Amino acid sequence: MSFNADMVLGALLVGTWANSILYTIEIVQAAYYYRHFKQDIWMLKLLVSSAIAFDSVSMIANYTGVYLPDSLYVFTTGVVGALAQSFLAGRYWRLNKFITPTLFFFITVAIGGAFASGATLAIFPEYKDRKKVIIPATTWLITAAVTDISIAVALLLEFRKVKSSFKETKGLLNRLVTQTVQTGAAGATVALAILVAFLAKKESNISTGIGYCIGHVYCITMLANLNSRKAGKTWSGNDTSSGAITQLRDERGNQERGGGGDEYGGIHVHRTAVVHTDTPQEFNVGLFKTKRLPDDSPAVEMEMIVNDSASYSSKNKQDLC
């Protein structure tokens, strides 16, 4: 095969341009996150910071890869993808704890394929040895795409179980469905594009140029999910549930229980209880109002009045997926 500068060097150059643009978007998203969600739990902050740090190393490796063979970007991109996918799988865990281990299995296989691909490229850096990386690279990219699609489908199936007459809940559900489809489609599309480009012409660097972008895509989608919350809503250290996911989970739980509500950070049913006792004075404790009754009245009489209205909790006790 004759040397084609456009396919070998030009693809890498274009890849670094796209890499720079996406990294700028990522940094803007990260700055917004750190500015508006300072109270998120430390584990979430660690995950976000780790993803950005690994992606920054990957960006530098992408630039050096234009001049020198460098498999570092493959290792770092695999880690970034695993972190972003673990974040999304963690959201699903709040809704379904039985299927989530399967998602984490896919994530493990994907990062294993990425590491195997990076190791193969490090041992055999020559273009003539590109065929040696076909199996690990195919395993990595296909599993990554399957993971993205599986998480999106799993979330959509859970969202479909929620039925509500509340306008706020319907709006929230539509937003989450759109967000889930976009998140799953972004990573899967880039992963499949890399695979197709690689299998179509293994000697070119078109697949590598596209691969320069996938880590940034994962980081941007993860940060977009985090920043879609209202400013001030945070992950609490007492409960790591997402406000959006918790709202839908509570809504579905209320339906299964035939009402009830859960005043826990999201959409809930307000409870107002009136307790009648024969105590000598009237006092209020929260929503419970106790009034004095005649001496010949029953010892205790409780009346529960349920106000069927849903709203976002103004206290924002718990938030996140």
Automatic annotation (TrEMBL):
Keywords: Membrane, Transmembrane, Transmembrane helix. Residues 233-265 are annotated as: Disordered. Coiled coil: none annotated. The chain crosses the membrane at residues 12-34, 46-66, 72-90, 102-125, 137-159, 180-200, 206-226. Residues 235-245 have a biased composition (Polar residues). The keyword rRNA processing does not apply. Residues 144-230 form the DUF6534 domain. This is DUF6534 domain-containing protein.
